Amino acid sequence: MPVLAVVVVLVFATTLLPLVLFRRRRRGEPSRKDTSTIGESVYAAVLIVIFVVFVTKTFRAEARIDPVTAGGDTVQVVAFQWGWTFTHDGRTVTGDDLRIPTLRVRAGRTIRFRMISRDVIHSFWIPSERFKRDAFPERWTEFDLTFDKPGRYVGRCAEFCGLQHAGMGFVVDAR
Asked: 77 burial class (0-12, 13-18, 19+ CB within 10 angstroms)?
């Protein structure tokens, strides 16, 4: 929010300030000066600094890799049009747009998920956990999740993946 506030103030200031300073005056002739090289140079330098700061912060944030556990429970997830396959503790559960799969995990334990897509980009989304991660074809994605409280967590695909996308759900039953 602080970054957003600063950006809003900068945008409004750079938009409204010239309107106030260079508004049309009723008397006198317009200035014969048609360029302001110092002002334009300062303005360009400020924009370049802002650009460099935002690009640097973006690349640093994207370069961070989510740490994953070295051991413990592992769930393999395969996304496909229009369902999910979960493999955990030697059991495999598959669902489709007509039958939603239920993944059973232990509550309070960190679980490593290894996920891939068989066809198009899908998105593993659990709204109550505020967690979303994309599944890509031919590329494994790994992440950790911990379901702190026992309960049923409804999940969905959050990436439009075709005509039956709306039925592509799953349930995580944490016990």
From this structure: buried
Report which residue type is found at 143.
F
DSSP string, 69-104: -SSSEEEEEEEETTEEEEEETTEEEE--SSS--EEE
Report helix, strand or coil for 28. coil
Asked whether residue 2 is domain-assigned, the answer is no
**Is 41 a member of any domain?**
yes
Same domain? For 46 and 82 the reply is: no
Q: Quick: pLDDT tens for 69-116.
A: 666 789 999 999 989 999 998 899 998 878 999 999 999 888 999 999
* Position 23 in a domain: no
Q: Give the range of the structural domain holding residue 148, as residue numbers without chain letter.
A: 73-174
* Shared-domain flag, residues 48 and 132: no
CATH of the domain at 91: 2.60.40.420
pLDDT digits (tens, 9 = 90+) for 7-19: 999 998 888 888 7
pLDDT exceeds cutoff 90 at 63: no
Residue 16 C-alpha from the chain's centroid: 32
pTM for the model stands at: 0.62
